[in-house]
């Protein structure tokens, strides 16, 4: 279970990207964070694994406060957090298999990691996950020979091979065409369900969020102003998230978290 308490981020420029975000994500939930450009979606996702250092507040993963860890401890803890990036963050000149296995680097000794020697069971797991993401038989292809959608599948496979406790995705569909975006969202849904891993993504396309997520978190100006199901995203709540409007109906107010805009 992931829990954030009063998570706040102020960048050195003085921009307050997150005000005080408290929320919980658990089970096999597929959660999509939505909101206008600059609302703080990316900052929130990146604060969870401290790719961006939060200014204050805590992030607990299964009871461990990640914000209190030393950098060595954080390296170990990050094994539990799979991360999928907008621009894939793959090593282009390496093969699909080498990229996927890099998700196991945190589990092998430094020497084995240096020599890229992985146990047989890691290799078998990687094959299994490549099948799962629809890349069976492509393990020896170089990543720079793949399409954007295939690259993102490699990125997803690399995150899943870690056996993480949560999967985070920072704009996983932004670089993809609409059809491929649907495929990737479907894949993430299947992973949440079949692997029992909660998935948290931040996403621009509201229709994709509504079509696939179990739950939506709406950010406006660094404030969590909506926490509800896709069905609860009405014109009214949409206005709260995207235009900072006040709520007018009681139905909409039900979907606003404690501490959020009322
Ligand atoms: N490295 C940074 N240094 C200073 N300010 C930053 C930095 N990164 C983000 N910000 C600011 O923090 C706020 C939130 O940015 P963030 O990228 O988290 O929003 P977002 O909702 O993900 O936006 P988008 O949908 O456009 O990617 C914005 O005002 C942005 O300008």
Automatic annotation (TrEMBL):
Coiled coil (residue ranges): none
Domain of life: Archaea
Any one GO cellular component localisation term in the record: membrane
Claim: Nucleotide-binding is one of the keywords in the record: yes
Occurrences of domain ABC transporter (ranges): 2-246
Keywords carried by this UniProt record: ATP-binding, Cell membrane, Membrane, Nucleotide-binding, Translocase, Transport
Keyword Transmembrane (UniProt): no
Stated name of the protein: Phosphonate ABC transporter ATP-binding protein
Organism field: Natrialba swarupiae
Taxonomy of the source species: Archaea, Methanobacteriati, Methanobacteriota, Stenosarchaea group, Halobacteria
Gene name of the encoded protein: phnC
């Amino acid at each position: 279970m992931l829990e954030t308490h009063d998570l706040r981020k102020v960048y050195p420029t003085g921009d307050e990207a997150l005000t005080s975000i408290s929320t919980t994500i658990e089970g096999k939930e597929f959660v999509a964070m939505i909101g206008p450009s600059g609302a703080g979606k990316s900052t929130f996702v990146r604060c969870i694994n401290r790719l961006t250092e939060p200014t204050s507040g805590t992030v607990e993963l299964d009871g461990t406060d990640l914000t209190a860890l030393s950098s060595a401890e954080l390296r170990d803890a990050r094994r539990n957090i799979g991360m999928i990036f907008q621009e894939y963050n793959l090593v282009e000149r390496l093969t699909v298999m080498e990229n996927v296995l890099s998700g196991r680097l945190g589990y092998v000794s430094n020497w084995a990691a240096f020599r890229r020697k992985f146990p047989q069971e890691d290799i078998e797991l990687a094959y299994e996950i490549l099948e799962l993401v629809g890349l069976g038989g492509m393990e020896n292809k170089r990543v720079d020979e793949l399409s954007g959608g295939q690259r993102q599948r490699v990125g997803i496979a690399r995150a899943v091979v870690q056996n993480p406790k949560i999967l985070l995705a920072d704009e996983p569909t932004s670089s993809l065409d609409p059809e491929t975006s649907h495929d990737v969202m479907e894949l993430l849904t299947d992973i949440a369900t079949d692997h029992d891993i909660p998935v948290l993504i931040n996403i621009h396309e509201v229709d994709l969020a509504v079509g696939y997520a179990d739950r939506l978190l709406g950010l406006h100006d660094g404030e969590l102003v909506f926490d509800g199901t896709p069905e609860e995203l009405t014109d009214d709540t949409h206005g709260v998230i995207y235009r900072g409007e006040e709520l007018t109906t009681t139905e909409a107010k039900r979907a606003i978290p404690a501490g959020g805009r009322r």
